[in-house]
Write a structure and sequence with these properties.
The complex is a heterotrimer of chains A (about 190), B (about 425) and C (about 400). Chain A is mainly α and about 190 residues long. Helices cover about 65% and strands about 0% of the residues of chain A. With about 425 residues, chain B is an all-alpha fold. Classes of the chains: A mainly alpha (about 190), B mainly alpha (about 425), C mainly alpha (about 400).
């Protein structure tokens, strides 16, 4: 492989990029749920997914970022848009935006956020597993060289050096599940086979 | 700043690897300008080539032999009234061409014009390219929807369904090629574009000819799928004029429409360069191992200069054949100037080829090598562009259901089969 | 013409079914009965929708309006609205003398004007009981067959363009120029030629006529090969045209379809052989017949017809007899009281003239039976169950000229 890469590229302006991408993700996430127009919401979701892909890149996981773009932004969102456009949902853009029990929703959301924040903060030190000593959210697991991200994932999925990978079985089961879903979709939509 | 500028000149890395933001930006600007110029040239070539296929001349009046026609077209499109349909969604209508343009142009960051002539050698290069070109589908879908008229909507949904279907076959063909990169001593393949070409160099074979005919079939699948991806004939039902449902860009006029055309041509060049990188050896000159003597290197390095010289000669012949009427005086002068320009470039390239014929690291030699890489790459892409035009001139277009049938029932099984057989052959050969 | 209402469509269906059709019964015709009275349903909520094609459309070969009833992509039925090119030619005929009406006839099927002229002149000659001399008949045959080739070339170019092959159009038009040059040198006009007169031909063949026709006979066969090389074996062409727009022989006869459309469905019926006129009985040629009655067969039938026309022209030009070119026709043409129907095999089908004479110099009534008008009825049957993209192909394969349909 290219030796310059394995030594690890010096990242550039990391905090700036992080804040921009994270802010973009949050802002477009808010846009997803507040837009009246369903197509605007779908486009905002695409922006969210792309910024998350950028965040994956910053975590030195380029394969995950690439697959996120291909599968999520390029495949699933196209499907979303197809469905939005083929189904006439203009009615919903004229309905009332927020219903009357919105304080309850707000309280539930705040409670959930408090739970997440406390789990992250406390998990760093307090919630350590007494037997192995590993914390819930350890600071750095280990920075794998970027060039081997693809190979590591492949090793976990397919196995290497003659033994089965960690997730091979789950991978195969998941692909069978997808096959069943595809067949089901085809059967349900065709008028006659 | 100046240090960043000059420190890169001596290195052999891509700007991304060398962590040089300034040069990365420069490469991006050069690529942007280059692709735009290439699209303009493509426009002229398409009109002239199509015309010659159809026993007519094509543009002849705007500039000598129509050479200024694309500029006139661009000017006209820019000056046209910007019509937006009444009930259309303003923001989405505005953003749709941008999505397509972004997707088409972002692919160029990973395309290697040479071993260090790429903006960034991402080690997921191919994956990135696949992902970003699938974002182009979004631009079309959104454009059709934003026009607020059911004909463009149907056309857009059809176009995008077609693109998505052929992306599957395209991806599998690409995986076959990637598989071939791992047929080396260490058994590790790579997704990086520059490494793929290096793998072809190390294995002494273009992947087109590897495990014959497997590489050829995978290449053929990709070649057909890329024509369908870019909505070109014979898969251009969605933009045909004689069909009932007009294309997704019906409601777009003027500059917005030209952005769509720009995106389409840029996508054509991008997928052709993917094909060239994966199967045709990228920037490598023909027979780098068979004819590897320095004399052969020198002969092949003369090709860029000779090509421009040939073009200059054709332009000169055109000047000589112009009618000697006063009406044609300006065209004659224009064509003569164009011939002179081409001749000057040819001379420059020949001088560089001669001056840099030794394989040392002098400036001339490095220029010579760089020019050689870019030349062979662009030449191979030019072959594909000509094929695109040839297809459009010769064949009728497929009906939409036939198109989808081919994508799913013919291309997908064949590409799966090729992938499996390649893998089996690769294991057996090891 | 006003747009047909529901009632008039039912009337047509009634009238047709009372004559006992083979497979076209009232139920199947009613199925396509386009319900134009009820308001159009919201677009994407239901599957059926009514789409309008034309009258301005790149692919309808003139001003033809086709209303399609679709179920998703499949066509359930069509309705053609014609009359956009109606110029009242038959009414004009009642106010012109027979000689004066001759040029009007060219303008109906403007692509094959020579055939129109031939049919009309022969009909009037029959009414007058006059026969054109042998030399005139040979000249007529040569020019009519050249016009058949020209008409088929135009059909081929436009039909291929509709299906998406852009290039054959330019090739056929380039080669058609040779024929049009011959016409221009003969009678002064390329398209609406007014080549014949009642009783024979007015113009003697110009010096070099035979040589130019023979040059054309040598020039053209490689061109047909060129067209066939582009289309006949082309996988995409075959997929677009095979089994598209099938009409069975029984349906074709029941609807009165004639010409290459009928022959492609397997019926060997050509008026040049069945009811020979002009000098056709003296020539040896074949009638191509298809098997399936689909678009591909119609394409092949017309290609073979072009080659057979070359055969006829060759035999004719090699044996033009000497003699007068005009028969014994009075200066003022006043046919006796009576009526006549005379039909010829125009490139598009059976072109018939029904002339009623009341003894004066102006006809009482001329009714033209245009082949395109009758063939267009078959459009409805042919496109049932096809996709929208095929409708364009079927309209092209019927080879209609709106000037003839509307008159």
């Amino acid at each position: 492989m290219n030796p310059a890469l394995d030594s690890g590229m010096a990242p550039v302006a990391t905090p700036w990029f992080f804040y921009v991408l994270a802010g973009l993700a949050v802002a477009s996430g808010v846009a997803v749920i507040t837009r009246r127009n369903a197509v605007h919401a779908a486009l905002a979701l695409i922006v969210t997914l792309l910024s998350v892909a950028g965040l994956y890149l910053m975590l030195y996981a380029p394969f995950v970022a690439g697959v996120q773009i291909i599968v999520y932004a390029g495949g699933i969102m196209v499907l979303f848009l197809f469905v939005i456009m083929l189904v006439n949902i203009e009615r919903s853009s004229k309905e009332r935006r927020f219903n009357r029990i919105w304080p309850v929703g707000l309280a539930a959301a705040c409670a959930l956020m408090a739970l997440f924040v406390s789990a992250i903060v406390k998990g760093k030190t307090v919630l350590a597993d007494p037997m192995t000593g590993k914390a819930l959210w350890p600071d750095i697991i280990g920075r794998l060289p970027e060039s081997s991200n693809t190979q590591q994932i492949a090793g976990m999925l397919y196995g290497e050096a003659g033994r089965m990978g960690q997730y091979t079985f789950a991978f195969e089961i998941a692909s069978l599940l997808l096959l069943v879903a595809i067949l089901g979709a085809v059967i349900m939509t065709k008028k006659k086979i | 700043m100046l240090n960043q500028f000059t420190s890169y000149l001596g290195s052999n890395l891509t700007p991304g690897t060398a962590n040089n933001q300034l040069w990365a930006l420069m490469y991006v600007l050069i690529i942007f300008a280059g692709v735009s110029v290439a699209v303009i040239c493509m426009n002229w070539i398409e009109r002239k080539a199509l015309a010659h296929f159809q026993v007519r001349l094509g543009p002849m009046r705007v500039g000598p032999h129509g050479l200024l026609q694309p500029i006139a077209d661009a000017l006209k499109l820019m000056l046209k009234e910007d019509i937006i349909p009444a009930e259309a969604d303003q923001f989405v209508f505005w953003v749709a061409p941008l999505i397509g343009l972004l997707a088409s142009f972002t692919v160029y960051t990973v395309i290697p014009f040479g071993p260090s002539q790429a903006v960034s050698d991402m080690n997921i290069g191919i994956l990135f390219m696949l992902g970003v070109s699938s974002l182009g589908v979004l631009g079309i879908v959104v454009a059709g929807w934003a026009s607020n008229s059911h004909y463009p909507l149907i056309g857009a949904l059809r176009s995008s369904a077609q693109m998505v279907s052929y992306e599957v076959a395209m991806g599998l063909a690409i995986v076959s090629a990637i598989l071939m990169t791992s047929m080396n001593a260490s058994g590790t393949g790579t997704l990086s574009m520059i490494e793929i070409v290096r793998a072809q160099q190390q294995q002494h074979v273009w992947f087109l000819f590897k495990f014959f005919p497997l590489g050829l079939i995978a290449f053929a699948i990709f070649a057909i799928a890329m024509v369908a991806e870019t909505n070109r004939a014979p898969f251009d039902l969605a933009e045909a004029e004689s069909e009932l449902t007009a294309g997704f860009h019906t409601e777009y006029s003027g500059l917005r429409w030209s952005l769509f055309m720009l995106a389409e041509y840029a996508a054509m060049i991008a997928v052709s360069s993917i094909a060239v990188t994966l199967w045709l050896g990228g920037w490598m000159r023909p027979f780098p191992n068979l004819l590897s003597a320095p004399a052969w290197d020198f002969i092949f390095s003369l090709f860029p200069g000779l090509t421009f010289g040939g073009l200059a000669a054709i332009a000169l012949i055109g000047t000589a054949r112009m009618p000697a009427h006063s009406f044609f005086k300006i065209q004659r002068i224009g064509l003569a100037v164009f011939a002179a320009l081409l001749g000057f470039i040819a001379l420059l390239l020949l001088v560089i080829a001669v001056a840099g014929r030794s394989a040392d690291t002098s400036l001339a030699a490095r220029f010579n090598q760089g020019i050689g890489y870019v030349y062979w790459f662009v030449l191979k892409i030019a072959v594909f562009m000509y094929l695109f035009i040839w297809y459009r001139a010769t064949w009728p277009r497929y009906r939409f259901d036939q198109l989808m049938r081919i994508g799913w029932k013919v291309m997908l099984p064949i590409s799966l089969g090729v992938l499996m057989v390649t893998a089996i052959v690769g294991v057996l050969v090891k | 013409m006003s747009s047909p209402t529901k009632d008039s469509t039912k009337e047509i269906a009634n009238g047709v079914s009372s004559r006992g059709l083979s497979s076209l019964d009232r139920a199947s015709l009613d199925q396509a009965n386009l319900d134009l009275e009820t308001p159009e349903k919201p677009y994407l909520d239901s599957n059926e929708l009514i789409i309008n094609m034309g009258p301005q459309h790149p692919a309808t070969h003139g001003v033809l309006r086709v209303i399609l009833k679709l179920d998703g992509e499949k066509v359930l039925g069509t309705e053609c609205v014609i009359g956009y090119l109606h110029r009242g030619v038959e009414k004009i005929a009642e106010n012109r003398t027979y000689t004066m009406f001759n040029p009007y006839v060219d303008r109906m099927d403007y692509v094959a004007a020579v055939s129109n002229g031939l049919g009309y002149c022969e009909a009037v000659e029959k009414l007058l009981n006059v026969e054109a001399p042998a030399r005139a008949k040979y000249i007529r045959v040569i020019l009519t067959e050249l016009n058949r080739i020209a008409s088929h070339q135009l059909w081929l170019g436009t039909h291929a363009l509709d299906i998406g092959a852009m290039t054959p159009l330019f090739y056929t038009f380039r080669d058609r120029e040779e024929i049009l040059k011959i016409f221009e040198r003969y009678c002064g006009a390329r398209l609406t030629t007014h080549a014949f007169r009642i009783g024979g031909c007015q113009y003697e063949t110009y010096a070099g006529f035979e040589k130019e026709v023979k040059n054309f006979l040598a020039f053209f066969p490689p061109k047909i090969d060129e067209y066939e090389a582009l289309l006949t074996g082309n996988r995409i062409w075959i997929e677009r045209t095979k089994n598209v727009g099938v009409i069975s022989a029984a349906d074709a006869i029941a609807l009165g379809v004639t010409g290459p459309v009928l022959r492609a469905s397997g019926v060997k019926w050509d008026l040049r052989k069945a009811q020979p006129y002009a000098a056709y009985s003296e020539f040896d040629f074949e009638i191509p017949v298809g098997e399936n009655g689909d678009t591909y067969d119609r394409y092949m039938v017309r290609m073979v017809e072009m080659r057979q026309s070359l055969r006829i022209i060759e035999q004719a030009v090699n044996g033009i007899p000497e003699g007068p070119i005009m028969g014994k026709v009075p200066k003022v043409i006043k046919p006796p009281v009576g009526e006549i129907y005379h039909s010829i095999e125009a490139p598009k089908g059976e072109l018939g003239y029904f002339i009623v004479s009341d003894g004066s110099t102006q006809p009482y009534r001329i009714r033209v039976r245009p082949p395109s008008f009758v063939n267009l009825q078959a459009l409805d049957i042919m496109v049932r169950g096809l996709l929208v993209a095929d409708v364009v192909a079927v309209i092209g394969t019927l080879d209609i000229v709106l000037g003839e349909v509307d008159r």
